[in-house]
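Let us walk through a complete example step by step. Step one is to write down the protein sequence. Step two is to encode the small molecule, guanosine-5'-triphosphate, as a SMILES string so that its atoms and bonds are unambiguous. Step three, shown after the inputs, is the structure prediction itself.
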Amino acid sequence: MGFQCGIVGLPGCGKTTVYNAITAAGATGYGAQEANRAVVAVPDDRIRPLVDMYKAPKEVPATVEMVDIPGLKKGSTAGDGRGSKLLAHVKDVEALLHVVRCFDDKNIPFEYDTINPVRDVETIDLELVVADAQTVQNKIDRLGKKARTGDKDAKREIEHCEKIKAALDEGIPARKQGLSDAEIVTITECNLVSLKPQMYVGNIKSQSEKDNEHVKALAKYAEEAGAEMIVICGRDEADISQLEDEDKAMFMEELGLTETSRERLIRAAYKTLGLIDFITAGETEVHIWTIRKGTRAQDAAGKIHTDLMEGFIRMEVITYDDLMEYGSEAAVAKAGKHRLEGKDYIVQDGDIVVVRHNK
Ligand SMILES: Nc1nc2c(ncn2[C@@H]2O[C@H](COP(=O)(O)OP(=O)(O)OP(=O)(O)O)[C@@H](O)[C@H]2O)c(=O)[nH]1
Ligand SMILES: [Mg+2]
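Step three: the predicted structure of the complex.
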């Protein structure tokens, strides 16, 4: 099962451009109605040292799927077919990479005549909020019948939904409502789009604009929201992604770029998705496995193979950092840093594991 990150934003803000910078897909189609999608490897500095240490002939990085969702705008998720199709794309992904136009250029068509990142972000959020209010109302209506027969669970769920609905009606996205665990449980099946974590990408025209007033406004907004934010010259980096390595270096120097945003963007998206890695490493391969933060050892084992989950006995764990510090598995064990964990152990980022099982 792969994790998906959706790229959203107003029409013409640079979504496809940023998508191309990330995926090197070379997609075109300004105003396209269909989503572009591509699976990208998550850059990880830990792979190379492990491959060298184990002399593994094969490496399998973590991946995420990037989905370039056609432009959302004011009123675009309202009733009609196109709106519900757009919304379905957003429902399908687990986090949103929100592209925001932070450059002025009258020659490049845009939704509005002015540039105003906070207005743009809030415009899209409002679309998500309105769609969610409808979804929650539908659930309340469904629960109503049950509640009238005296079903206590239904009554409690209605209370949760009504509270969430009231806040949505005030324009507050679900992810900013400080929902309790119980409320989250009630609302999970609704797959609310305003609950999905967001990160922001400020799209600028050139490096010299990286501190412009629009970027500053977006940065302030992102900080207050506790969200990741990255600034990128979308078009330059999309161009660079199409070049061979030598030309790439030259072009980057010309543009005053020391690194491309591609890797930072993918890692930030990975973080926004709430994902971490654990690792299996041996003579055959180094394999990076993706799990959600908070995953139990037995469930993590199931990512590798269902047999490992069903026949789970123990998980042997060392950390990547310890392995690098001590230089070998044996040395880590000798230092007493090798652990045996049970099925409820919460797997941590960078754990290198062996699953003991009886299947
Ligand atoms: N100068 C400049 N132009 C850009 C930049 N990013 C995007 N553009 C231009 O803006 C226009 C729209 O960019 P797209 O990436 O197609 O925008 P989009 O958000 O995918 O648009 P829709 O799919 O129509 O919603 C294109 O003409 C791009 O070349 C940038 O960083 N600098
Ligand atoms: Mg596009």
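Step four is interpretation. The mean pLDDT is 92.
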